[in-house]
Amino acid sequence: MAELRNLVLVLGDQLDLDAAAFDGFDAAQDTVWMAEVAEESTHVWSSKPRTVMFLAAMRHFTLALREAGRPLHYTRLDAVDNRGSLAAQLGTDIARLRPRRLVMTAPGDWRVLQALRGVARAHGLPLDVREDRHFFCTVREFAAFARGCRPLRMESFYRAQRRRHGVLMRGDEPEGGRWNFDDCNREAFGACDPGALPRGPAFEPDAVTHEVIALVNQRLAAHPGRLDAFAWPVTRAQALEALQRFVTQRLPLFGRFQDAMWPGDPWLYHAQLSAALNLKLLDPREVVAAAVAAYRDGAAPLASVEGFVRQVLGWREYVRGVYWTRMPGLAEANALQAQEDLPAWYWSGDTDMACLRDALAQTLNHGYAHHIQRLMLTGAFALMLGVQPRQVHAWYLAVYVDAVEWVELPNTLGMSQYADGGLMGSKPYVATGRYIQRMSPYCRGCGYDPAQRTGERACPFTTLYWDFLMRHEPMLAANPRMAPQLRHLQRLDPAQRQAVRERAQAIRRGAVGPPWQLALDG
Q: Considering the domain boundaries, does residue 415 fall inside one?
């Protein structure tokens, strides 16, 4: 056997033939290493759709590698010699393949990076970690920006990104004379339903994906979620088709209705591109360019295109920078000292709250919910209930097909749970059931009344909102953005406050089943 120069490590979210890890690749001297391991589905109780998304995309990527003539050492989940973790499998394969060096693109998970560095040290091998080029901004560039920006807000970063990359700019000024069209992008569908929506991209599983589905149903049978509706893009070609269909069919109304919710329809006008982006089947530059081209061609209005670009060029890049400049401490953040357990029904969807029942059902069936469902339904309920942030983080990382820790953890702990104390968000995102009533028809089919804060028919969102304000009143009083809510709180007399506290405690007793760790152990 010829001496192996480089063992090129490729993780499940690095499925790009042009990744930095392949720079200088020589098929005569180098080999690609990939592994499906149980730990990546069990360190959090990963849902079946999420696991299938990763494994199916990985197996299709092996076909592209072979077509490109790149030697590959690949371990399947059901291989008899599978060691169960990336570190253990890599250690075993190093002993067999005996490379002189390990090469990889920077991973998207702090835990994985530390584990692979540990393997390299244990075997006395250099580990060449290369920049992930699938971003507009490097971690070093973000760190430099962050040092000069206090407070570190996404909007400031987003504007700097627009200027730097010349996206939606007219010289030095933003297209349309405004940086942000968010106030144009908050419409609900109203009393009427959304009408005839364009059919979202659905990709019938091929033989490779069917094989993965069967494997996951067998090996991870106890994990949450269903696979009979799995139709995500798992190849580069499918991802490009999904991008084209979004831009032509749904981008024009994306901005206007991006915050709206509707029962039984998980997709609405959303892109369904985040999973493909995060697995590197798409490059964010081509995604932004396609959206901007639609505006230039008159096929999509500026408000929609700017709102979409802000998610990709702004928020996505911002949360990655926050993750890598704040880890590992960010994972332990708990500014509100929340200690409740996550309700067991987050894993099953078995709740009598219509909005959460629908959002959880689509999450478990499809591995997907859009940003308002994540922020203002599942996230806001956990925040106001007082759930320990790491439990919320573990749930989000487990259930969504687009969840890679660099993007999921800051969104959950910072934006959703305010566990970072206001680093990412200028206020906690909390609201009564009235917000849900305004943005959806969920309340029409629910036994709870969003206008009531006490009593058996009081909407749990409404009760917990007022309870949240009372529990954190001293801290919130220092936040100018919370002043209007606190003025309303001050109108509650002692008897009303006590009634809210008692109702909130009853909700907690009824909402929280066995601790989520018991579900993991099972």
A: yes
